[in-house]
Amino acid sequence: MSKQSTIPVGRVIAGKYRVESFLAEGGMGAVYEATHLRLDRPVALKLLHQRHTNRRDSVERFSREARKAASLVHPGIVDVRDYGEDETYGPYLEMELLRGCSLADVIGHGLVPIGVGALIMYELVEALVVAHAQNIVHRDLKPANVFLALEPGGGARVKILDFGIAKAVREGLTESTRRSLSETLTQTGVIMGTLHYMSPEQLTDFRDVDHRADIYAVGATCFEMFTGRRVVDNGAPIDAINRVIQGQTLRHISETRPDAPVSLDAIIAQALAPNKVHRFAEAQELLVALSPFVTAAARPRLADVVNAAMKGERSTHLSTTDESTRVQMREPVARPSESAPPVTRTTFWPRSKRQFAGLALAALLVAFVSAVLVTLLMS
Fold first, then answer.
1. Which ranges in the chain are annotated with CATH 3.30.200.20?
2. Residue extent(s) of CATH 1.10.510.10 domains in the chain
3. Who has greater pLDDT, 68 or 225?
4. Across residues 338-345, what is the average pLDDT?
5. pLDDT of 282-311, one tens digit each?
6. Is 282 exposed, middle or buried (0-12, 13-18, 19+ CB in 10 A)?
7. CA nearest to 268, candidates 257, 164, 184
8. What is the mean pLDDT of residues 316-344?
9. What residues are annotated to the active site?
10. What is the CATH number of domain 100-378?
11. Dist. CA 32–CA 334, nearest whole Å
12. Which residues are 185's β-sheet partners?
């Protein structure tokens, strides 16, 4: 268990935040509900795990990316208000306190209606347009990082979490294969935990990653939202890596959702193109393609979906069809980038030495961890 997860209720962090309750824990750190003592307001406080605080380069990157995240002002991006360091618990971020649940929670309680899902996808991309305009790439978009926040007026909207911070920590981890076993296992957990949403170029050459990796992740996230399945089904990690690199992933939601409009199916398939030149060139282009699917009927239902998931219900709000879907299927919709070249399968063999090295490193890493686990089980 991490050092942060043992912070007791009532403990004061950095002389100004009183911990009220534990909210969540992930690969990077833990999040608490806290009270800002000087302003007397509730906040969300995130602290890095100890394994990251001991590495100065990760702390410096965390600080730099925190400043970038704080510069992103948009209702679809979680508001980062302050950054600092506590003498005992290390670096922290103060963020707005949200009420609601993650998209991962919603997916766990049933298929999302097409109309509501299209709205979620639209608001997610809308926030990315702002970030990409400032040359900030998330690199770790997934259902757990897409928060559906309830609003005071009774509505709900999408909020992207951990913007840019995942990139900062990931950059520190990619060069840690020669470190201790615990760090190697930690690195593997981070990579495998997000494998289903990573683009082929993220698995072959990190230096070749740009904003189109986020577009791929949007496609993978929304494919799972609509179908309940990941683009790479269960299997050995190395097999999944190979399938992603070869482009042998699921891409068409219509195979599971016959109620999905053909054009929406094509949009998601293009976002998931294994070759990034065949994806949407910009998030703005994807946003325009999605705009015909956003209807007023879907907005009040989004809050219903969130409330149902928070109660643990598989309610009618999570059924496969809804009124907004029927409206959309009757509406003419613009097909995305019909002039774009057809998506082709990438070959198994990497096209460059850097890609080959990336694939080889991933294979060796998985084999090493598997051997360690077998040894531990047999001992």
1. 10-95
2. 100-378
3. 225
4. 36
5. 999 999 999 999 998 898 899 999 999 999
6. middle
7. 257
8. 37
9. 140
10. 1.10.510.10
11. 44
12. none
Residue 65 dihedral angles phi and psi, to the nearest 5°:
-70, -30
Q: Please count the other Cβ atoms lying within 10 Å of the Cβ belonging to residue 270.
A: 22
Q: Which of 253, 251, 255 is nearest to 269 (CA)?
A: 251
Question: How far is residue 208's CA from residue 50's CA, in Å, rounded to a whole number?
Answer: 30
Contact call for residues 292 and 307 (beta carbons, < 8 A): no
3 vs 130, higher pLDDT: 130
Considering the four listed CATH numbers 1.10.3720.10, 3.40.50.1240, 3.30.200.20, 3.40.225.10, the one that applies to the domain covering 10-95 is 3.30.200.20
In the block, tokens 């899902």 appear at 117
